[in-house]
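Format is chain and fold; as here:
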Amino acid sequence: MTIATDPPKESFRLSMLINDTRYRSYTFQAIAVLALIVIFSILGNNLAQNLAAAGLNISYEFLGDPAGYDINQQPIPYDSQSTHMRASIVGALNTLIVAFLACVTATIFGVIAGVLRLSNNWIISKLMSLYVEAFRNVPVLIWIIIIFTVTANVFPQPRDFRGDNPTASMVGDAVAFTNRGVYVPKPVFEAGGWIVVAVFLASIAGIFLWRRYARKVLFDTGRIVPVFLPSLAIFFVPALLAYFILGRPIGLEYPELRGFNFQGGLTIRGSLIALWFALAIYTGAFIAENVRAGILAVSKGQTEAAAALGLRSGRIMNLVILPQALRVIIPPLISQYLNITKNSSLAIAVGYMDLTGTLGGITLNQTGRAIESVLLLMLFYLTFSLTISALMNVYNNSIKLKER
């Protein structure tokens, strides 16, 4: 009787780093990393020598100096005597605002257009095809300029709101559409106001939880739980109760015409509106194609089986098609969100002061610190893009097929 024994372990040799497939990939990766380190070291040393020869050095002390310029769209308090750091923060917030608004709006436009493009109604289908082909084949900069020109020439001037001018009147004595922008009421928070906001945000989270519960009940038992009316109640009732119980801690400051312009309220400038909607409708055309491709990727038998069970077309789309189509839609959707973020740097074309216009524009020209400003710009866009990718990848992993 023979006893099987394990073969003796082979001793490690340097030649195994190339010849042994177990180590070869690590060897090549280590070589690539070392090569990158050497290349960047050479470039960094060359930059330092050139700066020293020119009597310069890399310093970010200029961020503490007064900026000396105004910014038209200010999400936080700012004046010309604020520092370049403050100006950069204002520009970064303006970039985040327009990117967020454009991402949300583009998703809405894209989903609607993508679904309607597959409609059995010939007119609706062709209109959506015209929208997709028209907007995605024209550069986004042209759409930005077109929308900005339209808003600047179609809407009346603020002074036209004086008297009984029928062509210029406020909507509900609260909203004014002018060629300088849109003036809307501004919320004013008193003690307890943020509690109402927190309750409202919790209500939105509650809607998602209720919809998840209703879907789970449907899949587990086949029983349909009402969604629309309970969601509507969750959206309004808790926030309204908190608002009245706390003594109405949130008020509104209405815009008023004083002199030649509106004072008070919240101003949404025409440059922001033009950039926002241009990015939304342009990127929405690409998202529409992603949605259409995702829906077509779902087997037609799924739709026929759901219809055979008696489900209406709306429920078939929400419960059968879209959940499966999302696995195809989300990956390219991430790229579209990143494109919106990067395309927002075209804001300077219509005078919207984003980060590229402040830090990469006026601040760079005033201080002459091109290397420092460009490095900060790269860091911001890289950080924001990686954050979007990380969040969307978390969602993508949550909806992908999971093996049992």
The chain has a mean pLDDT of 84. The CA atoms of residues 81 and 95 lie 22 Å apart.
